[in-house]
Specification:
InterPro entries: Glutathione-S-Trfase_C-like (IPR010987), Glutathione-S-Trfase_C_sf (IPR036282), Glutathione_S-Trfase (IPR040079), Glutathione_S-Trfase_N (IPR004045), GST_Omega-like_C (IPR047047), GST_Omega/GSH (IPR016639), Thioredoxin-like_sf (IPR036249). The protein is α+β, with helices and mostly antiparallel strands and 412 residues long. The chain is 41% helix and 6% strand. Among the domains are: 114 residues, 3-Layer(aba) Sandwich (Glutaredoxin); 132 residues, Glutathione S-transferase Yfyf (Class Pi), Chain A, domain 2 (Up-down Bundle). It has a five-stranded mixed β-sheet. A two-stranded antiparallel sheet has the order 1-2.
Length: 412
Amino acid sequence: MHCISLPSSHLLLHSPPKTTLKLASHVSPRMFFNDSATNNNSGSTNGFSLIKNVSQLLWGASLPPGILISTVRTAWTSTWQIMMSQLAPSDPSGAYTRPPSKFRLNPTAATTKLHLYVGLPCPWAHRTLIVRALKGLEEAVPVSVAGHGLDGSWEFKDVPDKDNDILVPTMDRVNRCRNLKEVYRLRKGGYDGRATVPMLWDVEKKEVVCNESYDIIEFFNSGLNELAQHPGLDLSPLELKEEIEEWNRVIYPNVNNGVYRCGFAQSQEAYDVAVSGLFSTLARIDDHLGSSRYLCGDRLTLADICLFTTLIRFDLVYNVLFKCTKKKLLEYTNLHAYMRDVYQIPKVAATCNFLEIMDGYYRMLFPLNPGSIRPVMPSVCEHEFLCRPSEREAMSSVGKRVRHVLTCNVEP
């Protein structure tokens, strides 16, 4: 059977325009939404103070009258539905339906002069960074790392890499564009669709090669072996392809996209269905990993990479922001140890920038977090905790050989 198509687009939402709420005929304080978290200017402070003073004058220490609460709630609900329809298209039941990738890979058209565009918060882009690192394709396929702009778009900025041990946002290193949308528009015929990551770019033809994550990681795994530093590492061996596909059919809809179906659900019914599928699948995988080091036995595969990029974000983001609250990943003994095991593979930790991940979700997904407040990082998501021994190496001998093939070690 052929591998299923895994949509890979990850969209950051454009912040809504500032709105004005008229409380009286001569009073028009401005309601600062995203700007209240990003701009520490006097206008924001004065606007908040004015609202506070007016509310105290009208109602004193009491709550606002019920009619005002009902009116504001109705207005906010309507606005939320409009924004969510753009951020997360849904079906009639309110269930999130991810848009398909626009550009699929044609391996015969791919050149050897390629450039990868990614965003660090995005789990789909994260897959490509991990496979690129494990195969040793850093020199063969240079990368530009887009950061989250204040308007919600993917934009390029030069962030100093103080420690030189994790990826950070960069300038556009090949096209010198200000944001990812400009890069997409450089292709022949232009492009006005969603500018999503990951995106593989043909430098010579100035063309989008692919923006489907699974196509890209399969291509990195086997299509560039003549340029890879570790051509012998095969993350999708022929004898395991069917098993990998079976796991993808389970993990993609229920876990990878399942967390988004929880967070972007626009009805209680849609949320209940999504959260049930998510946690029943996590329980099934946790049980399986009790007797198997990786999903397909004692060999790391693309299925593990796809699962890992969701797991590493689970307690950090999805458990809170996406309402995946039934259990924390830490409560799954096998799953959490498995995640740490993958994290400790040389070069993987360097692809995980936790602050960028948190900012990309908490500060930019406005409908889910209007205050744009980023919570404190859970201690169990810090590098030191994730480097605690997973004690899973004893389950196979292959894992030791994988670490021997790769070059650097993660400090315990």
